[in-house]
From TrEMBL:
Matching PANTHER family: COLANIC ACID BIOSYNTHESIS PROTEIN WCAK (PTHR36836:SF1)
InterPro entries: Polysacch_pyruvyl_Trfase
Gene Ontology molecular functions: transferase activity
Biased composition annotated in UniProt, kind: Low complexity: 208-218
Start and end residues of each Polysaccharide pyruvyl transferase domain: 18-333
Keywords tagged on the record: Transferase
Organism listed in the record: Microbacterium croceum
One Pfam entry name: PS_pyruv_trans
Name the record gives this protein: Polysaccharide pyruvyl transferase family protein
Lineage of producing organism: Bacteria, Bacillati, Actinomycetota, Actinomycetes, Micrococcales
Transferase in keyword set: yes
Region Disordered, residue ranges: 187-218
Length: 421
């Protein structure tokens, strides 16, 4: 290692075939710098090694099976970093898991790193909340009080931290540091220029279906993403029924061509692929084109090929905004609602946790279609402003990493690595 390099344990929700999470990983390693040696966790180590191969100095450990190795790496590292994602939160009932399971796991890791390994800890651009119970708030405080460098990505996270006596810094979502060329893989040797799927635009045209003759009018190409994990699970089926009615009504005014944008494939029940395929059966009058997406490059290229995005997933909306495509936001939780506010898309969003007026939402989507060129330019401009903020945040993070001293120590000894004052 040179004097500028550090041995960094970098933890997140990697290897779950979630394009947003994998995009965060690539963004952080790119922005923190390729001079460091990273130890990255993954639920699918082979997938993550393949994703990062040849571009970063990385060891990948199995999140579920290599817990002893993780402890050894925490004893050897210069610092521990959590990068992005909603990591300190109570899980929704729709996940089928204990509400506190993620927070308790993070508490154990942070406490070991702080008290046993005595290493500095950074949580950068993370989401904190929603946390509604007193127990959840106590766990959150136990975690956050041990963190040396804390930045959060939204106002709710700031408020939640302050409610437990922690003062964070507000930072822009990390992915806004990227530009359109990087997202589209203009200089990435891993991806062919035509995209990584069966069709030239990323689609498998052999499975394209339409039960009605093609309209003589040019259809509006809509990238559609759906995510099962909403706050109010009881409203999921009513929401899908209402969305189907909305799109059929829009289709009567503007012929639509739906392009599936599954941001997660596999790993969990009711992944985006399954949900989108089920939704397609609800709207047989609309042409539905599936896409097999392997990475953010594929998602970005599908979005670029479309006129607008209708999406729940936060990072699909971020990608679309950077590329200059307008979004109609299906706000399924607080972080997506806040993103709509940040991008000035609140008039073009709807809370899907409650019933909504089909006619009103249809009319608003028609408004996006009619104004798509202007709205696309507006979100691109707003994203450019956020890019400056995100890059400034990363500059500060790099300075913090550089101030951590690398200390030699006798074999078997444990010494805390402190940031320089």
């Amino acid at each position: 290692m040179n004097d500028d390099s550090r041995r960094i344990v970098f933890l997140g929700t990697h290897g779950q075939r979630n394009i947003g999470d994998e995009l965060l990983l690539e963004t952080f390693l790119t922005q923190l710098g390729d001079q460091h040696h990273y130890i990255v966790n993954s639920y699918d180590p082979d997938f993550t090694r393949s994703q990062l191969q040849g571009r970063f100095d990385v060891d990948v450990i199995d999140t579920a099976r290599d817990r002893r190795r993780l402890l050894r790496e925490l004893l050897r590292c210069d610092l521990l970093c959590f990068g992005g994602g909603s990591i300190i939160k109570e899980l929704y009932a729709s996940t089928g898991r204990n509400a506190y399971s993620t927070m308790l796991m993070i508490l154990a890791i942070v406490t070991f790193t702080r008290r046993i390994a005595r290493r500095p800890i950074a949580m950068l651009n993370v989401g904190v909340g929603p946390i509604r119970s007193p127990r959840g708030l106590r766990i959150a405080r136990m975690i956050l009080s041990q963190v040396d460098e804390l930045t959060v990505r939204d106002a709710l996270s700031v408020a939640t931290c302050r409610s437990v006596g922690i003062e964070p810094r507000l930072a822009t979502d990390a992915v806004f540091s990227a530009d359109a060329e990087w997202l589209l893989g203009a200089n990435d040797p891993r991806r062919p220029a035509s995209g990584g799927s069966d069709g030239a635009d990323g689609s498998d045209e052999s499975t394209t279906r339409s039960s009605t003759p093609a309209s003589p009018r040019t259809p509006v190409r809509v990238a559609l993403n759906l995510n099962y994990d909403i706050e109010n699970a009881d409203n999921w089926e009513p929401f899908l029924s209402q969305l189907g009615l909305v799109l059929e009504r829009v289709h009567a005014a503007h012929p639509l061509e739906l392009h599936a944008l599954p941001m997660q494939k596999g790993f969990k029940q009711h992944d985006d692929v399954e949900v989108l395929e089920g939704f397609a059966a609800r709207v047989p009058s609309l042409r539905f084109i599936p896409h097999d997406l392997a990475a953010h490059l594929d998602a970005a290229r599908v979005i670029e090929s479309c006129d607008l995005l209708i999406s729940e997933r936060l990072h699909a909306i971020v990608i679309a905004s950077i590329i200059g495509r307008p979004s109609f936001v299906l706000a399924y939780d607080v972080k997506v609602r806040e993103l709509a506010t940040t991008l000035e898309l609140t008039p073009w969003s709807v809370d899907i946790n409650e019933p909504f007026d089909v006619t009103a939402v249809s009319d608003r989507i028609i408004g996006v279609i009619d104004q798509r060129v202007v709205l696309g330019a507006q979100v691109a401009q707003r994203s450019a402003e956020l890019r400056e903020d995100a890059r400034a945040n990363f500059a500060r993070a790099r300075q913090w990493v550089a101030r951590t001293r690398r200390r030699s120590r006798p074999a078997g000894a444990v010494a805390r690595t402190e940031p320089d004052e």
